[in-house]
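Lab notebook: predicted structure, single chain.

Context: the supervisor wants predicted structures on file for every construct in the current expression panel, including those that have not yet been purified. This is the next one on the list. No modifications to the sequence; it matches the entry in the shared construct table.
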Amino acid sequence: MFTVYVLHSPAYDKIYVGYTSDLNNRMLSHNELATKGYTIKYRPWNLIYIEEFSTKTEALIREKQLKSSKGRAFIREMTNSELHKRA
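Prediction complete. Output recorded below exactly as produced.
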């Protein structure tokens, strides 16, 4: 099973899209273990969206879609509506 996930950094209002076969370890890496890379600059990250796929190919295709301008707009809309629900 492969998971496409979206992270949000509330402190910096940044979005990160990725995929993994082990979401728990990947989240640990993003928030604590990693020592280099994009995500260490904007910690902490909140998991705001996931989709699961049976193949790596399907997950890569969806990750690419979410990284497109339409996908980013979808993510931003979802993020903004979630933040308004919490307020």
